[in-house]
Structure formats: structure tokens, C-alpha cells
Write a structure and sequence with these properties.
273 residues; transmembrane helix; transmembrane; Sulfotransfer_4; Rossmann fold; single chain; mainly alpha; 2 domains; P-loop_NTPase
Length: 273
């Protein structure tokens, strides 16, 4: 499908221009802000925190890719469920790089690779606590099955499937053992798969010029964005976890209280006979 032919795909109104396929914590928030500055609306993993109902599509994609359950999403399904309003993809999208390269062959690819040890420190301190903790266990085991949405399920399936070997709480240790090798493999495989003319290996700190030259965009008259991703992620995950727990406890309360009311009413009616 040509870049200009956007109407035939899941309600898409604009072309898909950029697949920013660096893993989470490779300056994905700064790169997303840069694409937005260039006039390209960007889908970032933060959105899943704000719109947890989108977790259903991500869970379906993870089930198909990592657990042989169901069919992979088509381009039309990606667009309809998640991407139709966006021209760039970043952050959690990296775990579906093969599917997205196939779905959007017109899009250019940007990679940002940090030193593996620096990346692992940032990832293990900033992302993993939001996936594996007693609070998240409670949400996965009790809240989401009862009242949904299944956002924590989706995130565990994505990260556990890509960096580990499953999606349960035991995957924390598997990810710790595998993550650095998977990180290196991620970049190697993309560089092997993507033609050089379609790929930019962007170096942090190099400013607007290489990115704008690659994307054929004018250079903005503003500094290149520098977003404190660690602070944003930790704050938003904490807020989302707290909101989910409170909502879940209220929802679970209905499951407990409603049957008690029914039983109590039946007992009362029987006592009147």
C-alpha cells in the first residue's frame, strides 16, 4: 500500500511515516516528542497507561506472537484498534517490530541504541517494578479477571514474551538473565532485516539535522527535546496502579456485597412466611 493510500486501512487518515523501534528506555519519550515537534502524531507506551482499554488489542497481539493463541493482527486491525490517528510508533511497539515492518512497508525506521549496561540499569529500575510486584500480582490475579481491563496482563505478556519465556511472575528472573542478550539481538536482527536506505541509526545528542535529513523534514527552530523518561514512567505507573487498585477493590466489593444482599433478602422474605 502506498504511503498516500491511507483510507483503505482501518480508518487511517494519514500515512504511517516512522517506526521508532528502539526498546523501552532508549530515549523513546524524547524521540516521540521530536516526532511530534516535526508534526507527526506518535503512539507511545504512555498511552496504554492513560487508555488502559487499549490493552485488549496488545494482549491479543502478544498472545498470537508469543503464545501461539489466535491470529496476528492485520494492518487494518492494528489501525482500527490502535494506530489510525498516528504517523509514528515508539516504545512498546518495539516488541512487534517484525509485524509492523510488514504491516507498514512505507514507513522509515529509526533506531536509538544505548550502551547495554546503561540501558539495563534504566530498564530494570524503571520498567520492571511496574510489571512485577505484589501490587501488580494482586491486579493480575484478582482485579483484572473480575473487573478489567487487562492492561497488566497485556504488559506482562509483551515484555515476558519478548525478553523472557512466558508471562507469569517467575519471568522477572528469566528477564534478568536474558535481557541484555535479547537487547543486542533486537538491534542485530532489525539491522539485518531493514534496507540501509530505510534505516537511520540515530545517535543521541546529534540534534535535528540527521533525523530531519532522513525524514525529509525542515529543521525546527527549537532545541531537540530531552524528556525525563524515568520520572514520567514512574509517576504514571504509580498513578495507574493506584487507580486500578482502588477501582478494583470497589468493583470486587460489588461481587462480594451483591450476593450477600441477595442471600439476605431471600432470608428476610422467607422469615415473613
Amino acid at each position: 500500500m502506498a504511503a498516500s493510500d491511507v483510507s483503505a486501512s482501518g480508518g487511517r487518515k494519514r500515512p504511517m511515516e516512522i517506526l521508532s523501534l528502539g526498546p523501552s528506555r532508549t530515549a523513546t519519550a524524547s524521540m516521540a516528542a521530536a516526532y511530534e515537534t516535526l508534526g507527526v502524531p506518535t503512539y507511545h507506551g504512555y498511552r496504554l497507561i492513560t487508555y488502559p482499554e487499549e490493552g485488549a488489542a496488545w494482549e491479543r497481539a502478544a498472545d498470537a506472537k508469543f503464545f501461539n493463541k489466535g491470529q496476528p493482527l492485520t494492518r487494518e486491525e492494528w489501525d482500527e484498534a490502535l494506530f489510525k490517528d498516528f504517523g509514528a510508533l515508539a516504545d512498546i511497539c518495539f516488541m512487534f517490530w517484525e509485524e509492523l515492518l510488514e504491516a507498514y512497508p512505507e514507513a522509515k525506521v529509526v533506531l536509538v541504541e544505548r550502551d547495554v549496561d546503561a540501558w539495563w540499569k534504566s530498564f530494570s529500575e524503571g520498567i520492571l517494578p511496574g510489571l512485577y510486584s505484589k501490587k501488580v500480582d494482586f491486579i493480575v490475579n484478582y482485579v483484572e479477571p473480575a473487573v478489567g481491563p487487562r492492561t497488566a496482563h497485556a504488559c506482562r505478556k509483551m515484555y515476558g514474551g519478548y525478553l523472557g519465556s512466558g508471562w507469569g511472575p517467575e519471568q522477572l528472573e528469566v528477564i534478568k538473565a536474558n535481557a541484555k542478550d535479547r537487547y543486542r539481538e533486537h538491534f542485530r536482527r532489525i539491522r539485518e532485516a531493514v534496507p540501509k536506505e530505510r534505516l537511520l541509526n540515530y545517535e543521541l545528542g546529534s540534534g535535528w539535522e540527521p533525523l530531519c535529513d532522513f525524514l525529509d523534514k525542515p529543521v525546527p527552530d527549537v532545541p531537540f527535546p530531552r524528556v525525563n523518561e524515568a520520572e514520567i514512567v514512574q509517576r504514571r505507573i504509580k498513578e495507574a496502579t493506584t487507580t486500578t487498585l482502588i477501582g478494583g477493590i470497589r468493583g470486587l466489593g460489588l461481587y462480594v456485597i451483591a450476593p450477600m444482599v441477595v442471600v439476605g433478602a431471600a432470608w428476610y422474605m422467607r422469615s415473613l412466611r
